[in-house]
Every structure is written in C-alpha cells, then in structure tokens.
Design a protein that fits this description.
By secondary structure, the chain is α/β, with parallel strands linked by helices. It has two domains: 296 residues, UDP-N-acetylmuramoyl-L-alanine:D-glutamate ligase, CATH 3.40.1190; 138 residues, Mur ligase, C-terminal domain (Protein-Tyrosine Phosphatase, Chain A). It has 15 helices and 17 strands. The strands form three sheets. Strands 4-3-2-5-1-6-7-8 form an eight-stranded mixed β-sheet, sandwiched between helices. 56% of the residues are buried.
C-alpha cells in the first residue's frame, strides 16, 4: 500500500472533512454512542482522564499525558483542533498516528459509521467520526490510559460517551456562546457534564459564576473536588531562559525546581492542574519528584506562545477569545518585554472580535489584519474597520493573505530597528485562532512536531 498511501490518506481526509464541521453542533450523544456500540465500546477499554474548560484544555491535556508517560504508562491522547494535520489529534505514546495507522483506523471504523449514517436523519459529524477513530485506535494499541480533550462544551460533546476517572476543568470564560450559552454560568453548567459518579474532579481557579455550577454538579454526583488554590497551587514561579521554574504544592506532595519550557502564568496554572490530575489518577500518594521534573522539562505546547523565528522574534499563538488573548499578552509582556510589538491577526467571524482587539490594543504598537484559510475567517476589510475603531486607523494595516501580512509585520519590526539592521526590542505576534497559528507555523517552517498537511481546524 506504500505507493498508494498518500492518495489513500488524501481520500480519507477528504471524506472526513466532507462531514458536518465540528463547530456545527446537533446536541445528542445518540450517534456517537451507536457507533461506539458497534465498535464494542472502545471508550471503556482503558481509564480516561477527561479535560474540558474554555482556555488551556489542549496544553493541560498534553502536560497530563507527558506526566503519565514519564511514569511508564502507555498513553493515548486525543486533542482538538489541530494545527497542521488531522493526524495530530490522535496520539499514542506522544506520537501522532502515522499515515498508514490513520488510514487503518479510518478503515476499521468506516463500515460501522456507514451503518450509523444510514440509520438516522443526521450523519456522523467530522468530530464524531474522529472521536470514534480515537477510541478504537486506543483500544487496539492498547493504551493504559487515555487523556481526552473535550471538543466543545461537555455534556453533549462526543467525547462524553467516556466516563472519566478524573474530570479536569480548566478556566471557564465566554466563548462559543451560540452553542453553550451567553453567560459564564451557563457555559460552566454545560462543561460540568463531564463530572460523573465515581470520578475525581480537578478544577482550575474559576470565576465565581463558573465555580457555583461546577460545585453543584459535583454535589449532585457525589464527586470529590480538588480545587486550585485550596488543594493544590503554584507556590513559586520565576522566569528562566526559554520558560520558567516552578514550585507546585500538589495533592500529595510538594514539587520544586520544575523547569517548564513554556511562557506565562497561565501555563504554570495548566501544569499545576495536570500534576493534580495525575496525582488524583494514581491515588498512590506523592509522585516521584525526579520523574515529575523530567516530565516538566519535556512539556511542549505547539502553537501556544511558540517562538518560531528570531531577529526579529516571531511568536505564534492560538488565542481566539478575549480571555485567552489577555493571558497570552500578559505572558508576552512578562517574558519578552518588547519595546515594539507588531501583531498579525486573523480571527473567526463568530468570535468576540471587538473583545479580542480591546485586549490587543494596550500591548501592540501596530496591527496587521488578514484572513486565514478557514471559511469562518473574518474578511480583512471588515476586520480592518473594527480594528480602526479600537486602535485608530494609523496603527492598522491590512493584507488579503497571511503570508503578505507577515511580510508587512516584518517590515514594521525592521523599521523599529532604527536602521541598525537588527530588530532589537521588536517582536511579532501572529494570533487569533488555531488555524492562524497552524498556517503561520507552516509558512515559517516550524511545523516539525505536529506534521502533515491539513485544512480547517475549526477554532
């Protein structure tokens, strides 16, 4: 099959992309449950750590998986959306499924998917089919534990056919309001659906409006909660070359001198949640400090404040809502302290674009607006009009394509070098969505971790 593999992979990806996109929600677990039943309920083949929240889900899931793998467990990891390749979403032992493995996973599931499609008025969606493939791949591996990131929400998310032994909720904020509700409380109530009897809940520090429905759900299901700031916390954090050094009070012990090669207080918070989740999962007391340090030093977060070029420094980031943009900008300010920061922004039209712009404005010297390849991307003209209202027209430039926008940003950064030929003190931040970050990584040659070609991640 080797010679035909690229063609077959392209066919499989095209078929999956032809389905209803993951952001077009039809609230029901019936379709994915029917598919799982035909597959032998692979979501029950191993224990699950289930991760939801508004921001930080993917990073927390990746960190949790890294800690588990450092302890000698064989892991499955299911995350979304992807940066460059659909295959990134399904990892075994920290490695995305290879082309042949991905095609095999699809071929195993496809006949049963066709049966579910034929049985009802609504076909399986893009995300439902990939979720079935992930659970099947993890059962076939087999893995010892699967870390599963919710796609959207919680209660009605396709991943919620699994019953998590640990349910992790990262910070909840306003996002996807058309599907999840227009208040933080409503969104938190939807995300609380992953908290089920028999689990342990691990909650990041939450706004009060989110904390109440999460606590209510835990009380209703008899689930004990482990809460950041009460049961575990980051107790010390210092900047270091390429990241930060942390001390964390965990559920069962204190862990010091943890080198985390990621930027921002929010990533420290994500790491603390991941550590607490693994402690809760192990149930065996304090983790080996050496293994924890080893795991922390190996943690990565592609597309999350990722430096992809230097001179000038170019950072790509997946922030796609105001809360996410706020913590990203705080991290950039803390870790880099640029005199001049030029931002390149391409964002989905269904986001709180004005809120995102308002977060960018105090930290950004100049803004270059553009579009990414997603059909949901706001057009550069409309985005420029909104940006001018926040930044003023003199601070806003535009380009129809992301590569052109990056060139404009580079010229603005060079101009800040005052003729020295070095953009000292100037940086470029490319942000607005996972799609934007993924395309920028490819354009700038940074997509060496999550590999392959892709289309629309969906956020």
């Amino acid at each position: 099959m080797t010679d035909l593999l690229p063609t077959r992979l392209a066919e499989v990806e095209a078929e999956i992309y032809s389905r209803r996109p993951e952001h077009a929600i039809v609230p029901s677990l019936d379709r994915i449950a029917a598919l799982a039943a035909l597959l032998g309920d692979p979501q029950r083949a191993c224990p699950v750590i289930h991760v939801t929240g508004t921001n930080g889900k993917t990073s927390t899931a990746r960190m949790t998986e890294t800690l588990l793998r450092a302890r000698g467990l064989r892991t499955g990891l299911y995350t979304s959306p992807h940066l460059s390749s659909m295959r990134e979403r399904i990892c075994v032992d920290g490695v995305p499924l290879g082309p042949e493995e991905f095609v095999a996973a699809y071929d195993d599931v496809a006949p049963y998917a066709a049966m579910v499609d034929a049985a009802g008025p609504v076909r399986l969606s893009f995300f439902e089919l990939l979720t079935g493939m992930a659970f099947a791949a993890f059962a076939d591996a087999p893995v010892d534990v699967a870390v599963i990131e919710v796609g959207l929400g919680g209660t009605w998310d396709a991943t919620n056919i699994a019953d998590g032994a640990v349910a992790v909720v990262t910070p909840v904020a306003l996002d996807h309001t058309a599907y999840l509700g227009d208040t933080v409380a409503a969104i938190a109530a939807e995300k609380a659906g992953i908290i089920k009897p028999g689990a342990v809940g691990v909650l990041a520090r939450q706004p009060e409006a989110a904390a109440r429905p999460l606590a209510r759900r835990a009380a209703e299901t008899g689930v004990p909660l482990r809460i950041e700031g009460t049961d575990f916390a980051v107790t010390d954090r210092e900047l270091a070359v390429g990241g930060q050094v942390l001390a964390i009070r965990g559920l069962a012990g204190d862990y010091t001198d943890l080198l985390l090669p990621l930027f921002g207080a929010h990533q420290a918070q994500n790491a603390a949640c991941a550590l607490a989740a693994v402690e809760a999962f192990s149930g065996s007391g304090e983790l080996d400090a050496g293994l924890v340090r080893q795991a922390f030093s190996a943690m990565t977060a592609p597309g999350r404040l990722e430096v992809v070029r230097r001179s000038p420094v170019v950072i790509v980031d997946s922030a796609h809502n105001p809360a996410g943009m706020a913590v990203s900008l705080a991290a950039v300010t803390e870790a880099f302290g640029f005199d001049t920061l030029v931002a390149v922004l391409a964002v989905s039209a269904d986001k709180d674009v004005t809120g995102i712009l308002e977060q960018l404005e105090p930290a950004v010297t100049s803004l270059v607006v553009t579009a990414n390849a997603s059909a949901r991307s706001m057009g550069p003209g409309e985005l420029a009009d909104l940006a001018a209202g926040v930044f003023g027209p003199d601070r806003v430039a535009g380009a129809p394509r992301l590569d052109d926008a990056i060139d404009i940003a580079a010229a603005l950064a060079d101009e800040a070098a005052d003729g020295t030929g070095r953009a000292a003190g100037a940086g470029i931040l490319i942000t607005g969505s996972t799609t934007t970050a993924g395309e920028a990584r490819l354009l700038l040659g940074a997509a060496t971790g999550p590999a392959g070609g892709g289309q629309e991640p969906g956020q």
